[in-house]
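Sanity check. The docking grid for magnesium ion depends on where the pocket ends up, so I'm generating a full predicted complex first rather than guessing from homology. Inputs follow.
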Amino acid sequence: MQGEGVGTTITQHILSQQRKNPKATGAFTTLLNELVVAAKVISREANKAGLVDILGATGKINVQDEQVQKLDMFANQVIIQRMQHIGQLWCMGSEEDPDLIEIPPQYPKGDYILLFDPLDGSSNIDVNVSIGTIFGIYKRRTDSREAEILLSDVLQPGIKQMAAGYFIYGSSTIMVYTTGNETGVHGFTLFPSVGEFLLSHEDIRIPERGKIYSVNEGNYQYWDEKTRALVDYFKTRDKETGRPYTSRYVGSLVADFHRNLLKGGIFMYPADKKDPKKPSGKLRLMVEANPLAMVVKEAGGYASNGHGPILEIDPGTLHQRVPLYIGSKKDVDLAEAVISGKKKLD
Ligand code: AHM
Ligand code: MG
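Predicted complex below; grid placement will be based on this.
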């Protein structure tokens, strides 16, 4: 979308997109707006995380066998509480909840499904490194409003997302979102003094090829030969292709992804043999990979599991993990060719 000036609020932007779609009912606008409010609340807490007794692990283990930090739970609750009453959601799914989250009976239900990671990069909370919220929005499959909510109706390939994006709580708080269909990817920065997200990154395009590779290289010994060869390739000197690439890895997917989206590059979380319970790596298809795959695609990039597009994977479970190669189109194409065995690197 061109022509929105710097200073446009996120609400104006969502509304102007809605007006371009004659079938739009406003339901979607309400939904996104409420999500923005939830993110403002999370942002405020994240900013003062070092000051109050909200830091540190609660001692509970989440559905992914990881320790849950207090701020994760807070973010999860804020999103659920803010979103459940608006009448636009059919159900929700969160990284922090093993099952689907139903809308309480006292509230009306709608047609949309919100899947989210309330606070991604939780191991970075204690050390003041950027963290984020990731979301993907789908429409429910079934026609019957009264029908029981079935997981099979929720589990749709990422290509079906109506919108996706993330909030990054960093040196400033930024929201990046897309509604697909070539409407572009747009970034908004939260101005704390006015309490509004204002358009700051209009129509983001990721460079076709980058100079950055982002991966947890500490896992090198757990990778297969192809993955090792790919990472070795990015580190090898070659004038023509601008190698070696620069290595950048924060350990917060949202932060690593956001940097590469703006500067170009590839983020990888490959399959590894570190934990037999997680043979597909660490990241989750529904709440992490799919939303970012929609964003990157709309910005001219690509996301692959090493064999094909992330967005075309038919999900089997709500919390399934997936190897992720995401970023500049040419870099991810190469990664896919190598991992799938179509190209051999010498
Ligand atoms: P989280 O959702 O529990 O925070 O875990 C996901 C995070 C991603 O943000 C990041 O890319 C990855 O875990 C880092 O993992 P590792 O420490 O294995 O490199
Ligand atoms: Mg996460």
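Relevant for the grid: The domain at 10-201 is CATH 3.30.540.10 (Fructose-1,6-Bisphosphatase; Chain A, domain 1).
Also worth noting: The first strand starts at residue 57 and ends at 61.
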